[in-house]
Structures
1.
Amino acid sequence: MRKKIKRIAAALLCGALVIGTAACGATKAAVDDVAAMRGKGVGAGETYIDDNAIALVFQATPSSDSLDAASAALALVNTQRASAGLSALAWSDRLAQAAMVRATEIQTSFSHTRPNGTDWWTVDSTVQYGENLAKLYNSADSVVAAWMNSPSHKANIMAADFKSCGIAISRTADNKWYWAQEFGY
């Protein structure tokens, strides 16, 4: 009887994982359904900078492997852009700070809407114009491949107007990686 209950529980858990995440190959990881982009005129005249959220980022020190993975992801993105004749995206510390806020937030609410109900770009509206999210990818190679296999995420990566990027990874205690890639003009 216990074995049967364990099998049922395992089947339900696997079913929930399949329903709750989009698989990329054999990897049980997910990118959000649609990447986010806001036009240059959206939010015009209003500046949103969530100082409290950004202040929390400065209290957390990302691990060296997270920083290495974010840097590697940007290098892979720039390789994709170069192969299409586009200029490289420059690293932006401000976008990386906003990305860390978003990577942390999506641990509780995997969405382009922030947990407080505001739009994703309200972390720092002066720099955020595009966003790609992903969860459960533990390498730059796998997350960039997933983004490039998604038309809306690829569109953000390949947008010629974007000139800067920041990427951050927030990791849970059980080593689940949550990625945020923020783009700017």
2.
Amino acid sequence: MKKLLKKQEQQFTRFVPEMVKQELDKLEYKRKDDLYCIIDLIYRKQINYKTQLQKIYGYVQLPQSVFKKLIVDKNSITAGLNFLIDNNIIDVNPHYYVGVFSKSYKIAPELLSKKVEITIQDKNINKRIGLLEKERKKFFEKKLEFSQTNYFNTFKIDADGAYNFIFNQAVTEIKTLCFNKRILLSEADIKDIIDCKRKWKSNRGRILLYSKELHNILHRFTTNHFKILCIKNGYLYFKRNDTNGRLDTNLTNLPTVLRQFLMSDEKLYNVDIKSSQPYFLYTLLKVEKAIPEDELERYGKLVIGGTFYEYLADEYQKYSGKIKTRTDMKSMLFKIFFSKVESFAKIKEFFGGLFPNIMNYINETNAIHNATLANKLSTIESTTIISVIIPALGKLCIKPFTIHDSFVCRESEVNTIIDTFNEITTSMYGISPSLHVKTLLEDSLDSSEVEEDDDDVLAIWDDEFLNEINSYSA
């Protein structure tokens, strides 16, 4: 009976910016838990993504159906949103199209601050959160039940260490911004800007006179703090993406620099595929037999040998006279692979000069919708990693966490994972790609956060990402 009563009275928490909490404490509102849930949802949606757009302080689209999962009454949702807007706690973008784009919201810029945890008192909201938690933990692919169970039981983070890291990171970014704009502020003043202490309002105002980048820095800080708190408090998700088959978890959307704070009884390593998207394109081209053998094999040797991006950089210098880094060439290749046919004409002309038939194949594949090749490659990747390799490792009692094309594992598991990976990919595709093996600390140090690598850019292949890269000029 006691267990049943405890289960019925379970309370959940939501996360809101500290300054928002202070403002709401001054205001009278009958259903404050509605307000906390609305504020929480504005950031909760953003933790599912890790594209460049998420690093920019902007509006988040939220349809009424999202709010209704917690606040069933439509009038209560409207009243809560209007209250928050009228009291300058959230801003609303009035430009939306019914049935196409939902209204979008963001936290008022002057209230951007670290998160605090609020215990929800409303019994009905707690009940709905509980039901959503149960539904979220359901998984319908039997072969991955062992992996999901392990994830929910063991995925932990050093929350204090991670928070100190993002705080110091924000301090460094604001210092750099002040230096570039010739604004004289002490380190204590800058810390106060983040902590909302002493002269923080006037000092934020001084910086904002010269640059709105401060909002982006504070937005990244608060978003990452939200991600940390979700892991700390066990608000974990583990789901298979319906579009591309990838496994989406709190880990896949955690910035690379924060992976070093994951906790385990052994040192953790990341084993990932070198040039993974070029490799999976190679496997696709081999299966479809759409490219002349000599061009395909030339492409394949560069990819498998791990020198593909360096080759492209050398050839691009000959083509344009411009020096590009390996990272530059990765970014360029994503545009070639995943943009609309008419986008980035100059760099596609360059790539087509090296691999004319492959370029034609990419254009033909993306002719109707530029997500087509992206979804094909991610489907091959997810089939290989999630559907085949992870279950094979499970039979060996190895349960790594995955970050799309890589495995986070204990030191004692590294060699078995490499051997299993090579054996399976060779069996499936006739050849295995090169692999990177790094500790999570080394991986974090090598990451150039404000951070971009293969996994970060391609953490989700959806219209948002594809629209983003198509908004750039070649």
3.
Amino acid sequence: MLSDYYTVNSQRADGDTTVFEVSLNPASVVYGGHFPGMPVAPGVCNIQMIKECVERLTGRRLRMSYLAQCKLTTLLTPQQHPGLQVRIRLLENSDTMVRAQTLIGQGEATYFTLKFDAKVQPQNRIE
């Protein structure tokens, strides 16, 4: 869990999409090594942030099993992009699997896209 990397400010439905308004934390320990003096949001942390938002949405712990698409279109920094939207559209949400199409952006701008499959972890519901 990325407890100091970002904060979820709100969550809302927008048609068949759920939008999480998040703020990146420029004081996160992540930026100490990526990169000192010029913080850049690591792609793997963005993937984890998306996964955690999908877990909040579904109420279940997930383990990503397949990345169908992962594309970074803009270098994200906490100074230039302190407030972001994580947009999630669930394509499948069964007892054993979640498939989602997601993006990180702001307004009409898209910075990062991810389409993935995740296995539901048994008896690990998020409260």
